[in-house]
Amino acid sequence: MDLSALAQALRRITVELRGAAGVVGSGVVWAPEWIVTNAHVVRHPRVALRLADGRQRDAVVAARDTTADLAALHVPDLDGAPPTMAGVEPLRVGSLIVALGHPFGVSGALTAGVVHAIGPITPNGRPWIQADLRLAPGNSGGPLADSRGHLLGLNTMIAGGLALAIPVSVVHWFMRGVAGHPA
Amino acid sequence: MDKLLALSDELAAAVERAGRAVVAVHGRPRVPSTGVHWHSGLIVTANHTVQAEDDVTVTRPDGVSTPATVVGRDSTLDVAVLRVDAAGIPVADAGDSDAVRVGHMVLAVGAGPRASWGVVSAIDAGPGRIPGTDFFTLDLTLYPGFSGGPLVDARGSVVGLNTSGASRYLQLAIPAKAVSRVVHDVVSHGRIPQGYLGVSTQPVRIPDALRERLGRARRAAVIVVDVEAGSPAAAGLLIGDVILSLEGEPVTDPFDLRALLRSRPIGQRVRASVVRAGQLVDVELTIGERPPRGR
């Protein structure tokens, strides 16, 4: 796979979340009818979204955890294949990674970088995938993937120039607890 | 195999390989910097990150802390050399820094290891303008604590030493060849001899009327704002002297002075062209060796 094929594959699983003022963030198609994003991106019970093929949908915020900074969105007629999750092999520092999202409202933008480190950024903090990758507002909730296009995590914040992503295992654990979501 | 996946694996392997010779250096408050085991028992790091002279420690890749002694500083290059008990830490594999070209893909490695990825964006004399030494300007992020860490090529060979302290705006790396020269000085002399006059200078503009009277074209020179007692400069220079040139080479800012000192052997007599009380005078000076800090 080359970078453009990687971008295309990730665009298929990435949605654009829209508010009154335009793009507010990104989301990942997690399972049929289900999208996961950051809690800080969706602050109302419903959110408008645009799928990769341009179709518009309205989603219900089915679960929202501000501590985990994760939210589950339910879209009844959403099909689409869920992403391939990264395997159990440990992520190596220096390996190539890509983020897809809508930074500053730019649709389906790909950013490439490397794994900077893995773990908390403060003592006893939560684990992050720390990426040497340039993110911007609008990337939040979008996918972080490895060079195979396998999902590693959800891009969540920028700290000291580093991109921080919630590991896919944490997202998995959150989605399993969402009522009505097929575990 | 997938090309992208192969590249990804190579970059990760490069970080692992270089990371084995990387230590954390505790020589300043708060954020530790990074150091590289360059020569058996000698760690190099960025000089600006070693603020202390004593009580410097190093954390080895296995997490064990060990005391370090500062054995040499090159403040112009921004390299400090520390002696440590490095048993069990492999020596970094220094690559050919002359082979580095603009556009080459590189990684910066911080203690941890942590990684940053980018390209070499320029190779030039840099802010220090040191004769014979070009710096690598990097298009990558040197995160806090990355100064003193290795710049690594795609093979995992160390081609430079990263520093964000040599320029306020640029992320730079000192080529491995220049670092090895400094380390060689320490190995053969036990220290890094640095040319020294003992003056502090500031850039100054020469008024047009004075330029015309002196028959000088250049507007910029440096003014002496301090002369260290007992230094080579004390034998001839006074506070307020304006230095126009050294051995005929124009001195337009303090960097020029440092660069000129660097290119000449210690002990050499040099002639400084100086404006003193409105008159042009020649002052003979002997380049000395910079004394160690704190003495």
Structure write-up:
The complex is a heterodimer of chains A (about 180) and B (about 300). Chain A has 2 helices and 12 strands. Chain A is mainly beta and about 180 residues long. In chain A, the strands form 2 sheets. A 6-stranded antiparallel β-barrel of chain A has the order 1-2-3-6-5-4. In chain A, strand 4 (about 45-50) and strand 5 (about 55-65) form a beta hairpin. The radius of gyration of chain A is 15 Å and the shape is globular. The mean pLDDT of chain B is about 90. In chain B, about 15% of the residues lie in helices and about 40% in strands. Chain B folds into 2 domains: about 1-190, Thrombin, subunit H; about 195-290, Pdz3 Domain (Roll). In chain B, the strands form 4 sheets. In chain B, strands 1-2-3-6-5-4 form a 6-stranded antiparallel beta barrel. In chain B, strands 7-8-9-12-11-10 form a 6-stranded antiparallel β-barrel. In chain B, strands 14, 15, 16, 17, 18 and 19 form a 6-stranded antiparallel sheet that branches. Chain B is an alpha+beta fold and about 300 residues long. Chains A and B meet through strand 8 of A and helix 1 and strand 8 of B.
| CATH architecture label of the largest domain in chain B | Beta Barrel
Strand order in the largest sheet of chain A = 1-2-3-6-5-4
Low-pLDDT windows of residues of chain A: none
Q: How many helix segments of chain A? A: 2
Just name the CATH architecture of the largest domain in chain A: Beta Barrel
Helix content of chain A: under 10%
CATH class of the largest domain in chain B: Mainly Beta
Assembly type of the chains comes to heterodimer
The whole-angstrom Rg of chain B is 21 Å
Count of individual beta strands of chain B: 20
Distance from N terminus to C terminus of chain A (CA atoms, Å) equals 30 Å
Overall pLDDT of chain A: 93
Strand content of chain A: 35-45%
State the total count of DSSP E strands of chain A.
12
Largest sheet of chain A at a glance?
6 strands, antiparallel, barrel
Order of helices and strands of chain A: HEEEEEEEEEEEEH
Protein structure class of chain A:
mainly beta
- At the fourth level of CATH, the homologous superfamily of the largest domain in chain A is Trypsin-like serine proteases
Largest sheet of chain B: 6 strands, antiparallel, barrel
